[in-house]
Amino acid sequence: MDPHLLRTFVAVVRLGSFSGAARELGYTQSAVSQHIAGLEADLRTELLTRRPVAPTPAGARLLEHAAPLLLRLDAARADVLRLAAAPPGRVTLAVSPLAVGPRLLAALPATGVTLRVVSPAEVPAAVATGGCDLGLVDGSAAPSDPLRLPDVAPLTVTGVDEEEVAVLLPAGHPFAGRASLRLDDLVDARWLDAPGLCTPPPASARSASLRYDGTDLHGLCALAAAGHGLVLLPRRVAEAAGAGVAVPLSAPRLVHRTELLSPGSPTGAAAALAGRLTAGSPV
Questions:
Q1: CB 212 within 8 A of CB 223
Q2: Triad 282, 82, 109: Cα angle to 5°
Q3: N or C: which end of the chain has fewer CB within 10 A?
């Protein structure tokens, strides 16, 4: 399957237009039509309806495969180019918001690093495709268990830190005076859904909630403190929120885990930063 044709197909579906895909990709509309026809001939099935432009059932199934396939190709290209290039003097670090913690702050040199703050889901792809030299990603996990990361490329994953977690409650919440909480205590609670910031608790413990699309941690804590939903955070973050009440989670036993992602063995300035981040790491 020709990846150029696959990229054209993805663009046509995303934009819902052959002409729009042509403008975005720098092709003529005739070339886009030929790409789609070639892909349909290769797979011996119709992939798109033309009026309106929409995927057929076969096209929808191909679309499910297309994103990871194209991402893996981009990752392979970036990996080869990275090996061929001279070690850079600067390091670009993709970091999820809650991974900006004491270990990172202590490891950062005075100059030479660019921090790119993205959602946890974006960190692996940013490293795999060469957009960033290293990545720090975080999430909730059982103690010493690795995070469940998407398989975007053969990245090296190293545990950096584990912290206690807490639930951030409004000051007037019935459980605000507790010394600790179990998720079973909160089975009927509303939780904030904030995929750009933090991992939600297990699905069995949460009900319909407000969705927060963004990486502003202050805004998320303000929503929780105002009673719009609970949120599970590293205890140091919840206690420093300046609003609401942080109550440690006692069961199930979860920790806030941070992991370093690198494309194989980093070199130069990236290797130096990776060494400082993992020096003395307990995980």
A1: yes
A2: 45
A3: N
